[in-house]
Design brief:
Length: 172
C-alpha cells in the first residue's frame, strides 16, 4: 500500500453519484461577463464557503463546459443564491441555449458582473485561483462585495437533493 496514492475505488460511478445525492446542497447561478460584453450564467450546486478572513468561497465547473474559457480567464464573477420559488431560473441557466438573460431582471455590480434581481443572496468575487481536479475545475473566489436582497429575506432557499429540487421544512 502506497500512502501517497489513493486505492482504486471499490464502486462504480452510479453508486458514487447516488451517495453524493444524499448530501443536500443549495442552488446558485454563477454569472460573469465575456470580453465582448455578452453575459454568461450557469447553474451550480457546488458552492461552499472557504474562509472568513480573507472572505473566500469556492465552486466547480466541468472542464467540458462551453463557458469554461470565459470563467477561467475572467477577473470577476457573481454567485447568486436562488430561492425555492426560482426553480424556473435554475432550469433556464442549466439547460437553455441562446440568451439565458433574455427577460431576466439583473443589475450590474461594480465590476460589471450581472447580479440577479430577487436572488436570496449574492457574492461578487475576484477570480482568485483555479485548480484542475479530475473532470472539473475548482474556482476559489475572493469576495469583494456581498448582500442579501432584503425584500426576499423571508423566502426559503432552493435545495438540490437525491436528483430533485426541494425547499427546506423547519424542524422546530
Amino acid at each position: 500500500m502506497n500512502a501517497n496514492r489513493a486505492s482504486a475505488p471499490d464502486f462504480d460511478s452510479a453508486a458514487f453519484r447516488s451517495a453524493l445525492g444524499q448530501f443536500a446542497t443549495g442552488v446558485t447561478v454563477i454569472t460573469t461577463r465575456a470580453d465582448d460584453g455578452s453575459l454568461i450564467g450557469i447553474t451550480a450546486s457546488s458552492f461552499n464557503s472557504v474562509s472568513l478572513t480573507p472572505p473566500l468561497i469556492l465552486w466547480s465547473l466541468a472542464t467540458r463546459a462551453g463557458s469554461m474559457p470565459v470563467f477561467r480567464e475572467n477577473t470577476h464573477y457573481a454567485v447568486n443564491v436562488l430561492a425555492a420559488d426560482q426553480l424556473d431560473l435554475c432550469k433556464r441557466f442549466a439547460t437553455m441555449k441562446g440568451d439565458r438573460f433574455a427577460g431576466v431582471p439583473y443589475t450590474l455590480s461594480a465590476s460589471g458582473t450581472p447580479v440577479l434581481d430577487g436572488a436570496l443572496a449574492w457574492f461578487e468575487c475576484h477570480n482568485r485561483s483555479r485548480y484542475d481536479e479530475g473532470d472539473h475545475v475548482i474556482f476559489v473566489g475572493e469576495v469583494e462585495r456581498c448582500g442579501v436582497h432584503t425584500e426576499v429575506a423571508e423566502r426559503m432557499p432552493l435545495i438540490f437533493h437525491a436528483g430533485g429540487f426541494h425547499k427546506p421544512q423547519s424542524l422546530g
